[in-house]
Amino acid sequence: MVEQRTENPRVGGSSPSLATIHFLMPKLTLLNDGSVHEFEVGSIPYGGHGKPGSILDLAMHFNLPLNHDCGGNCSCTTCHVIIKDGAANLSEPNQDELDFVGMAEGVTDDSRLGCQTIVLGDVTIQIP
Ligand code: FES
After folding, report:
1. Is residue 7 part of a domain?
2. What is the pLDDT of residues 94-104, one digit of tens each?
3. Which domain, by its residues, includes 68?
4. Is residue 59 a contact partner of residue 39, using CB atoms and an 8 Å limit?
5. C-alpha to C-alpha distance for 24 and 120, rounded to whole angstroms
6. How many domains does one find in the chain?
7. Which residues, judged by CB distance below 6 Å to any ligand atom, belong to the binding site of ligand 1?
């Protein structure tokens, strides 16, 4: 996490006070090769791969080898990932994802579809 301090004239009445702004810099870690990719939430341009900010969209931005045969439209399971750490830092699965992820090869209780799962904090994934 990067901390930036800045003066905010709207805080503190007649005398400016310091406000602390925290920019989230989550890390996407790929267990397969141990690579760690840090990014600012909302700062990576949407590449059109699944949902904006999804594991798949981030994976494509960082050139990670995550398949996506349906183009990120939640109609295959080739973007299947296993969440090894940080599940609480992800969006909740919607019904479409829940319907499809169970059909993924090698599915586990920690499986998600990369195209549907939005990253909001540190997460470690494995591509099965
Ligand atoms: S890319 Fe097809 S379901 Fe995610």
Report:
1. no
2. 999 999 999 99
3. 26-126
4. no
5. 9
6. 1
7. 50, 68-70, 72, 74-79, 100, 113, 115
Round to whole Å and give the CA distance between 30 and 50: 18
- Distance in Å, CA 26 to ligand 1 centroid: 23
For ligand 1, atom 3, name the residue with the nearest CA: 74
Closest atom, ligand 1, to C-alpha of 70 = 2
Q: Could you tell me what percent of the chain has a pLDDT over 90?
A: 77
DSSP state of 69: T
Residue 72: inside a domain: yes
Q: Which tokens go with 64?
A: 């990670």
pLDDT digits (tens, 9 = 90+) for 56-90: 999 999 999 999 999 999 999 999 999 999 999 99
In CATH, what number is assigned to the domain containing residue 72? 3.10.20.30
Task: Give pTM, 2 decimals.
Answer: 0.82
